[in-house]
Structures are given as C-alpha cells and as structure tokens.
Design a protein that fits this description.
Elements: H1 6-12, E1 23-28, E2 31-36, H2 40-49, H3 55-70, E3 71-74, E4 77-78, E5 84-90, E6 97-103, H4 104-111, H5 118-140, H6 152-167, H7 172-181, H8 190-227, H9 251-266, H10 272-278, H11 283-292, E7 304-307, E8 310-313, H12 324-332
Antiparallel strand pairs: 1-2, 2-3, 3-4, 5-6, 7-8
Helix pairs in contact: 2-3, 3-4, 3-5, 11-12
Length: about 350
C-alpha cells in the first residue's frame, strides 16, 4: 500500500474541517452568548454525565451538559480555542488554595449555568435546538438523496410522540378545541363514556317531564276555557248601502205616459150598473132573444157630439127578460143546420 505525505493531505482537508458547525448569537437575560452546534463526542460525554441520575435530575443535567458544550463566546470572551480552564480552589484536606484544571464545559456549568433559573435553562436549550436545526439544513444543502432519510411511517410515529409529549403541558380544553378544529378527537375512557351516557339519560328525563307538564297545563287551560261563558260576539258594522245612480229619463217614455194619462182623464166615468148593462150578452141569451122573442128589437138612438174634433156614437141597448129554462134547452141541444125562418136582419138607418 502506498504512503501519502501529510502536508498534501492537510491541504486537501483544510476545507473539510469544522463542516456542519453552525454558530448563532443570542442574548439571554442581558448575557450575550454565541452557541455552536455540537460534535459527536460532545453528545457522548453529555449522556455519560447524566448516567444513573433520577428522572428530574437527569433532565436538568442533560440540558446543562449540552448548553455548556455549545457555548463558544460569553460577553465578548472567545472560548473557541480553549478546552481547559485553571481555577484556584481550596484543598479539602488542608484548606489551602490550590490551582485546579477543569474542562471548559465543567467550569461553565459550575460557575455560570448553576446560577441560572430553570426557565432560563429551558430558553437556552430551545435556542440550541434552533442551532442544531440550522446545522442539519446546512449539511443537507445541495445533496439529493435517493433514499429518504425518514419514511412516512417513521415521520408519523415521531410526530405522534412529539404530539403526546406536548399534549401533557396543555390544558385539556385547549387540546379538545384544537382536535375539534382539525376534525379529530381524543380517545375517551370507559368512565368518560359512562358519565356522558348518564348525563344524556338525565337530560332526556328532564325534557320528558317538561313536556308532560306543558301538556297538563294546556289541558287545564282548555278545560277552564270550556267551562267559562262564551264571550259576546261583537258584530261588525254593516257597510253603508251606496245608492245606485238614477238612470237617465227617456223623453219618449215620458211623453207616452203623459198621453196615456190624458186619455184616462178624458174617458167618461160610468157607474157599475151602466157597466153591467154595456157588457155584451152571453151567447145563450142572444140566441133566445133572437129566436124566441121578435119584439127584442133594439132602439137605437145616436147622438153625435163634437168634443175636441172627435165624433162618438153612444148606443143604448134594451134587453127583454131572459127565460133561464128556455135558454138551457137551447144550450143543451145540438145546433140545427139551415136558415132560421125567424131571423130578421137589423135595419140600420
């Protein structure tokens, strides 16, 4: 196998050093910090420091171990090329001051991070997460992966675990609201379902009781209304009768009525006896008068009077007494054909 000169290799690897290390400046509580992404040995040593600790102490040690190894600058003091720090500490045996060499992350954790509150540690750890995210994006920039680094199933499982971890820190009402907005719901326990069913049954019974009370009240009102006297019915006033407009008078009709009224006024007035005498005789009486009595002649007298230029003839007829029995015999028998020998024509002078 061949051997290569380190000078050539160092020149070739000059650009390969510190690949993936990203720095991000921030200010926390008035302290200016510069955080840098971690190397692989930093993760390993941070996990070793937390080994064997209880749960709560493990979380605090885990966060402080990562933050202490990520700090590369504090208030303008550069710590990038420093790995150890010399500090004077009292000797436990004699009490005299002595120089002690500590690693940089131990010194920062003991003399700075232990004086911070939990809330400040949480904020610094969250900012470290942003730095790690930037380092990951920078490392992936310009690279096309044939196989995805995370399948859909792995991504879903990871998100579900993160979701469940975040759900513990949120109120139950807020979680239910967010799930309802997304069309989801949490799995209910058997006790919650039982309580919901009990409440539903109680509401159903209350609604049924209210319906019965309402029906009973309506029945009582109907009974009282039937027993009460019927109120007088107020009749609505009849609409006024509008008189119809009179029809226009026809002058021809008026003239005709005037002529008829004048004729009635000018006609002679006869008594009841005169009217009876002027009534034409019955057929049987005329036949008896013609056949049985030759003396039943008419005395005709005419009188002519001029009134208003009109000539009227007044005729007075005198009749002989009528034999009822003779007339009945004439009416009952059938008529005889031929010329009556007793017929005498009336002479008119």
């Amino acid at each position: 196998m061949g051997t290569i000169d380190s000078k050539k290799l160092n020149a070739a690897l000059a650009k390969a050093r510190n690949v993936g290390l990203v720095e991000e400046a921030c200010s926390i509580g008035g302290c200016d910090l510069v955080l840098r992404s971690l190397r692989s040995e930093d993760y390993t040593s941070a996990l070793q420091d937390c080994d064997g600790l209880p749960e709560e102490a493990y979380i605090h040690c885990y966060q402080k171990g990562h933050i202490a190894r990520a700090i590369v600058e504090v208030n303008g003091v550069d710590l990038r090329d420093s790995r150890f720090v010399t500090v004077d500490e009292p000797d436990p045996a004699t009490g005299a001051m002595r120089a002690v060499t500590l690693e940089l992350h131990q010194y920062l954790s003991k003399h700075m991070l232990e004086t911070w509150g939990k809330e400040v540690i949480d904020v610094a750890f969250r900012k470290l997460g942003d730095v790690l995210e930037l380092a990951e994006r920078q490392a992936k920039a310009g690279i096309n992966f044939i196989t995805p680094d995370e399948t859909d199933e792995e991504k879903y499982r990871r998100l579900v675990l993160e979701f469940r971890a975040t759900e513990k820190d949120l109120p139950a009402t807020l979680v239910d609201k967010i799930l309802d907005e997304q069309g989801l719901m949490r799995k209910s326990t058997a006790d919650e379902i039982k309580r919901a069913m009990t409440r539903t049954d109680q509401l159903a019974r209350e609604q049924e009781a209210k319906a019965q009370e309402e029906a009973q009240r309506l029945a009582e009102e109907a009974k009282m209304a039937a027993a009460a006297p019927a109120p007088a019915i107020e009749q609505s006033p009849e609409p006024p009768v509008t008189a119809r407009p009179a029809r226009p008078v026809d002058p021809h009709v008026t003239l005709q009525k005037a002529i008829e009224a004048r004729k009635v006024a000018e006609a002679p007035v006869h008594s009841e006896q005169e009217v009876e005498q002027k009534r034409p005789p019955a057929r049987s009486t005329s036949i008896a008068a013609i056949e049985g009595n030759d003396e039943a002649l008419h005395d005709v007298s005419g009188a002519v009077s001029l009134q208003g230029g009109d000539a009227r003839e007044v005729v007075e007829i005198k009749r002989a007494p009528i034999d009822v029995h003779a007339a009945s015999t004439v009416i009952d028998n059938p008529p005889i054909a031929g010329i009556n020998p007793r017929f005498r024509p009336t002479l008119r002078g």
